[in-house]
Amino acid sequence: MKKLLSVILAVVMVTSALSVTATSAFADTREAGVIHFNDDFLENNREAIDDIIEGIESYQESIDISKYNISKSEYLTLYTTIYYTRPDLFYLSNTFQYYSSGGKLTQWIPVYKYDAQTAQQKRAEFEQRAQWYLKKVRADMSDLEKALVVHDELILNSEYIFDTDVYDLMVRGQGVCYCYAGAYAYLLSKLGVNTEQVMSSETMNHQWNKVQIDGKWYHVDVTWDDPTPDQIGRVNHTYFMLADDEFPPQEENGEIIREYDHYDYTSQFESTDHRFASYRFRSCCSRIGYAGGDFYLCDNSDKKIYKYDPDTDSSTEFKSLDYKWEAKSYGAGSYWNSIFTSVDCCKDYVYYNSPSEIYAYNTLTGEETTFYENTFENDIYGMYILNGKVYAKIAPDPNSSTTDEYVGDCIRCDTDYVTQSGEEILLTDEFTREADDSTNFGISNTFKNIQMLGVQKKNNSTRTIRFIAVLNNEVLKDCEDYGFIALSSGDMDRARANISALTLETANKRNVFSCKESSNNVSGEYGQYSADKKYKYITFAVKNIGDCGVAAMFYLKDANGNVYYAPYINGEGGVFNNCAVDWATIINNEGN
Known about the structure:
This protein is of the alpha+beta class. The strands form eleven sheets. Strands 2, 3, 9, 10, 11, 12 and 15 form a seven-stranded mixed beta sheet that branches. Strands 31, 32, 34, 35 and 38 form a five-stranded antiparallel beta sheet that branches. A hairpin with a 3-residue loop joins strand 21 (about 350-355) and strand 22. The chain starts with a strand and ends in a 5-residue tail after the last helix.
């Protein structure tokens, strides 16, 4: 006899641990990482779990699992396995139903929070916001650096609020511990980093992650690193990359009541490595920003900002902070012992605050300017950057709840890339070029949509720049060769004029650089595919250019020996048969 049972599940249930590869309906260029939770159960029930997930994604009302011989007593383990390895299925209610017969599960009846259309819309919003976070991470970063960037970004853009789910944390920046842990695991899985969902018993009632770095596992508690109540620009790193025995003690009324403040939890992996125990990021209470190829860290213990390498923990002093914040509530002449400087980065600039100013440092030129001078009576207790806009916490004391004060747009740098319409895009943007599919740039037959995208500023010390082109990946299957023709001259106009007359046949051989077999020119982020894998970015680096101008043409040679050249369209819509720049203009942010 079949029996219909309805179950309501508390979201902080604890089981053991599974391994499932996170998937998405949206294209992704990276190999997915694994979200672990209940591995043994998955190995024994993989096909059933896959069928249920497929049914949930297609919004089925009933999913037949009768052939898998799963015991009725395992219904809760089956649910939590799916729930905690697929954070993107947030629209699945924690109320579910099933049919059973003879002690075995026969039908799984999902209960959804929303109708199908609403769920689809919310999942699209979820994925869009996830891409926003993922764009903060460079493809050449190590797994530790990826975990650090996502940790800091989630904290800066989130606050602890009840009655939420993973969608709310990802899209609205509001959630509780399982929302932080789910969002963190999902984002790292998209970056190819393995994680585990770790949950305590009902006694502690908490959830966090373990992250695999260089084959070893470490605790990361994003929730407890986020100050409560929320503090602008503040990101703690107390619970980032801990071993099992590195948790701080739990105190109550000044007395230590437990050896560790994280306790009574279940994890599939031991965390015994103490590699990060004394790393400098432990003393950092703000975002560890990234600009100009380097991380920048504010060490609150010795009141200095450092240029920092998270992988090796090596640091070079960047700025000594001799600032004092007046403790006005304690009377004149009273000052806080702590510093309240936040560090943030936008493109090639590092921003940080004193009590009365926000400064901007250009990593390419070494020039520092006062970006904002405070005109309010109260001090600046932190700052952060969101979507190119700078915000400051201006308050009477660090614990005051205030509205973030917008103080200006980030200083504009040269764009990384510019599309045909002049829109600025980042190297990690989802760039499909579908709107250009019907456009022929004067290139015959299949070789359309080859376009120079401009020039990216690179290392100041070696005077290196990169020229960029993008082309349909289908072209690469049949082409004989592709690459750049480059020419340097006394100035940009002369370089452009001289290269305009060049073709592959007439150019001096030393100026022709093939990318066909080169691992240097087509590698890493510069050889990446667009999100739909239809287009590929090709780049060419020019080093030690002195004060000269440099021009480059992108060429492609098909199997029949025909040669095609890509046009360059600048931000103002001007069309050239090459892209040219000189060092003086690129340093002055005027290069095209």
